[in-house]
Structure formats: structure tokens, C-alpha cells
Amino acid sequence: MSLYNFSAKDITGKKYTGEVEVLDEKTLVATLQKQGLTPVAIKQKNSLSLKAAVIPKFGKSVSSSEIVGFTRQLSTMISAGLPLTDALVILEKQSKNAYFSRIIGEIVADVEGGMALSSALSKHIGVFDVVYIKLVEAGETGGVLDKILIKLAETLEKEREFKSKTKGAFIYPSIVVGVMILVMSIMMIFVIPKLTALYTEIGANLPLPTKVLIFVSNFMRNFWWLLIMMTVGAFYGLRVFAKTEKGSRIISVFVLRLPIWGKIRKTLILAQFTRTLGLLIGAGIPIITALKVVADLLASPSYREGLDYAISRVERGSPLYQPLATNPIFPPIIGQMLRVGEETGKMDEVLGRLSVYFEGEGENLIRNLTTALEPVILVVLGLGVGVLVLSIILPIYNLTAQF
After folding, report:
1. Is 19 helix (H, G, I), strand (E, B) or coil?
2. How many Cβ atoms from other residues are within 10 Å of residue 271's Cβ?
3. Fold exhibited by the domain 169-403
């Protein structure tokens, strides 16, 4: 792990600087690009020891709950008339996360030195993302920082709850599959070898299912290290491939075409798109700038390309709904609702309602998927146990049948 100082700029030309600890320069560039930033200069500050690279750093992260709490409390204190620096000092002392407290302290020092809050936040791009900073900047420009922070806190809270529900829906299937794999592994490593020794001793005639079971058991016992290496290698290789432009595109297209999960993935992307765009437009950020920020945040290359095309059309004077309505990756409701929003001048409200719609749709799809997965998992578990028991009993049955 190494410590890097960096400077970058976003699509509007605003500069961001900061210090971050990452594996290498390539990882830092990828992180900045994911945040919608273009690296300008990167300089390695110092290299950490091998011990520091091996031992994980605890307490060097800020959770979404802490960001929500920070934003909500800051908005409350500013609304009450407390000076910005005093509010930040109070939040610095209240924070139980030493790392976050240090970051707030650095923000306080920058603000006291005459720097705008948005500029001070931009030095900590790993903690506060581009959307957060853009909204704070819009609040400072319009003199409505407290209102922007309240809206931002509410949006972050909804986003966190939505992610929590999404993850929570897969807890039960994950536990069942994990226990199934654990039980099967224990059987293969500890139980089957003892039965193999017994069958060899009594000279039992082994049927094909039992021979396959013994072969798998021997392979797992003798080549467990190879299985681990293959698993880790496949996982790492997939991650590296996914970070490349071609790999990201292939994986994105593949996922979006999956029968059930593809629809869920599309719904989650559309929820993020409408939620973020509505928040940015509601803060008074120009629509083209807002679209560029959102396009850089989306994980799917297909949707990024769709938004890039929409941006080029909007820049030439076309209403936003037209390029989105003709693009098949965006559902018809997007074009219809955006047309209403543009004609009535209530784009932020329309986008907010769309985000609620897509979030509800996503929750229903995930709930239906997990409900359907439960019986499928039980059937697979039953078949696995049945094959295992049959493979164990068959040699004994054949042996008793000889007498």
C-alpha cells in the first residue's frame, strides 16, 4: 500500500485535490474515474511497509450512516444560525470515528483559512463523492446550504435503506447455500475417506456413483490448495478483467441480459439515475452538468453511452425526453414522465417520483426472486443429500445382496 497526493478535475473544470492510501497508481486512477474525475497529477508520497500492506487498516473508513448523521446535524446547526466553522468543530468533537474526526478537523482548518466548504470537501473525495460536493457547492452559491444539506441527508438515508433492504433479501439464501457447501465439504474431507477405507477392507464392489464420490473426495483432500488457488485466481482475474474497458462492457451486457437478475440490475441503475439527477436539478445545477455527473457515476457502460448520446442531443437544443424515449434501454415511462416534467417545469419532482417507483419495483423484484429461490435451494439441497446418501448406501446394499 502507498500514500498518494493527487489533483483532478471534473467535467466542469473544477479542481479536486487530496491524499489517499491505495495499492498502486493504477488503482487510484480507476477510483478517480469512477467518481467522474479526470486525474491531472499524481505523486507518491511514501511507501508503506510490507507489514502495513499485509495487516488491514482498521478504523480508516467512514460509513454511510456517519455521512448521513454528519450531513443532517450540520444542516440543523446551520439552520439554527450557528456559524459554519463552529458547527464543524462540534461535529469534529462528537465523532466517535477517529479517522472521520481527523478529516472534519482538516475541513475546519481549510474553511477557517477562507476556503469554501465544497472546496474543502473536495480534498477528501474518497469520503464525500462528486454528487455530494456538487450539491454543497450549489447550496453555497444559492445561499441555501442548510436546505440542500437537509435534502441531501434525506436522499442518502433513503439510498442507504434501499441498499440495506437489497442486501437483507439475500441473507437467508446465502446462509442456506453456505451451510450446504460447508456440510458437503465436511462429508467429502472427513466422512467419505473413512467409508472408502471400510469398503476397501471388505472388498465391496463399488458402483459408479460411489467411485465418482470417492474421486471427488480424494481430489479435495489431496489438492485442496489447488482449489483455493483456482478460486482466488478466478476471482482476482475476473476483477482485473472487469476493470478494463472491454471487460466492463462485456460483463455489463451479460448481466443486463440475464433473465431475472438483468431486470433487477436495470431497475437499480434507473433508480440511481433518476434519484441523483433529480437531486442535482433540484439544487439548481444546470441540466447538462447534472447529466454528465450522473453519467460518470453509473456503473453500466450501456447506460453511460445512452446518457452521453442524450447529452449531445440536449446540447444541440433537443429536450431530454426525446433521446431517452427512443433508446430501448430506457423504459417508456422515463420518456413519458420526463416530457411531463420538462413541459411543467417540475423535472426534480418528476424524477423524485420516478426514483420512488423504480426503488419499489426493485424491492418487489428482489423479494420475488428470493421467494422463488428458497424452494429451488431446498430442492437442490435435497437432491445433493439424496445423491450423497445413495452413493454411500449402494455398496452396502450390493454387499448384502450377495448373501
Report:
1. strand
2. 22
3. Receptor-associated Protein (1.20.81)
Q: Over 70: is that where the pLDDT of 247 sits?
A: yes
Distance between CA atoms of residues 400 and 397, nearest Å: 5
Q: Are 106 and 124 in contact (CB under 8 A)?
A: yes
Going by the DSSP 8-state scheme, the letter that residue 96 receives in this structure is S
d(CA 8, CA 18) in angstroms, rounded, equals 9
C-alpha 39/C-alpha 8 separation (Å) is 4
CA dist 74 and 79 (Å) reads 9
- What sign for the dihedral angle of Cα 225, 226, 227, 232? positive
Report the chain's terminal Cα–Cα distance, integer Å.
68
Does the global pTM surpass 0.85?
Answer: no
What does the pLDDT look like over 250-301, one tens digit per residue? 888 888 888 888 888 899 889 889 988 888 888 888 888 888 888 877 878 8
CB 308 within 8 A of CB 293: no
Q: Is the pLDDT of residue 59 over 60?
A: no
Give 64-157's CATH code, choosing from 2.60.410.10, 2.40.37.20, 3.40.1190.20, 1.20.81.30: 1.20.81.30
Instruction: Determine which of 28-37, 139-148, 275-284, 292-301 has the lowest per-residue pLDDT on average.
Output: 28-37
State which fold the 2-54 domain adopts: Ubiquitin-like (UB roll) (3.10.20)
In the chain, which residues fall in CATH 1.20.81.30?
64-157, 169-403
Query: b vs e for 18-47, b when ≥16 Cβ sit within 10 Å of the residue's Cβ?
Result: bebebeeeeebbebbeebbbebeeeeeeee
| Residue with the three cell numbers 447529452 | 311
